[in-house]
Amino acid sequence: DLKLPNFTSKDMIADFCYQHASLIFCTVSSSYKLYSVEMEPLNLLVIDEAAQLKECESVIPLRLPGVKHLILVGDECQLPAMVESKLSNRAGFGRSLFERLSSLGYSRQLLNIQYRMHPSISLFPTSKFYENQILDGPNVKSKSYRKSHLPWPMFGPYSFINIPDGREQIGDDGCSLRNPVEVEVISRIVRNLYRAWDGSEEHLTVGVISPYAAQVSAAQAKLGKRYENIKGFTVKVKSVDGFQGGEEDIVIISTVRSNSRGTIGFLSSTKRTNVALTRARYCLWILGNGKTLRKSKSVWEALVENAMSRGCFYNVDDDKDLAKAILDVKKENNELDDLLDGSSVLFRNARWKVLFSDNFLNSFRKLTSLRTKMPIINLLSKLSSGWRPKKRNVDIICEHSSHIVRQFKADDFYVICTTDIVKEERYIQILKIWDVLPLGDVAKLVKHLDSIFETYSDDFISRCNEKCIEGLY
User: How confident is the model at residue 473 (pLDDT cuts 50, 70, 90)?
Assistant: First the structure.
């Protein structure tokens, strides 16, 4: 029989527990409370997440009386302690005892089996950060780890979803960055996950990670509270730092950066990247601008190229719902100018390749009204898909053009375009958009085009006028 003394206060209960306990669990910062407790000396001290602990903070538990052995458990390949002062950070204030001992050559044991990530997820971080020393546990290689929450292959265990149409913006705090297009894509994916899960008895947790606080705030605002009180379906939106030590069934990473220079700022941190890439159990979907990241000369360049070589690289418009999401964002934010590129979501997979002249781009940007811009965008989308009006009254008589100049009405404006020839793998017909003008200015442009077409050969004009299958000769 278990015999307990008579306790008359909580302090007596606490003293009894301390005096008879063989294991005591506490945080490093609260371990100072043990200084004044009457109990047997502690022989062994184990500090978990030791690589995240400032060296000075390690002193708190190390001063406990009787400690003869110390075991530090951590990963110096992941984020260290947070130090806000740049001066203190440069001075090494955030360095951990774990890192110091490691740099001094103290022997260490590698726990070389991971039991969290699907092998498709662990493949890149294992090779890039751990020199292929980490093995996959039997549980993650089992059939039960092969989940199909959304249609494969884009939403398989590991995907990089290329979003070249995003625009990085300064957040409300004036410092951090956000990308509204990626926020909308996140919202659609989470919505689709919920719809696929609804009615299931399975518990599903979703994590949305971004290195930028403004993007975290934007994603939280977009998702709102709609998934807060749903039993069995949990969505968490946090920064990379906030997710360290955590894990979710599905993780969506929003990289935010989208520019022509390849500038990605502190996203290039290998430790921050490692944390973000290793939080998911079954599925990891990375959202980003592949071209920007490949130019960054960072770990992200290797990640994108790895995804491409493995067949895990997808364009966002491979999914029609996500393509529509991008168009909705551009319309909502009056950023339709971003779509005027042959590689944009609007034209990338169109039947006709489209080239825009500088004059057209300048004229379109001068249009301030969304109501004016949308009919033009819709017309261009239809033309690139192969649509042509039934009434053949779009030709413009031009002495040297032989009717290759066309005009198409979009409300109060006219889009002026021609069929042209370019060489890719072979010669193909393309649609060249010269300008968008009020009717009164069309004649002047036609006269200018006439002087250009005067230099074209008859054979070239003839080829422009030919009707080809898929634009090919």
Answer: very low
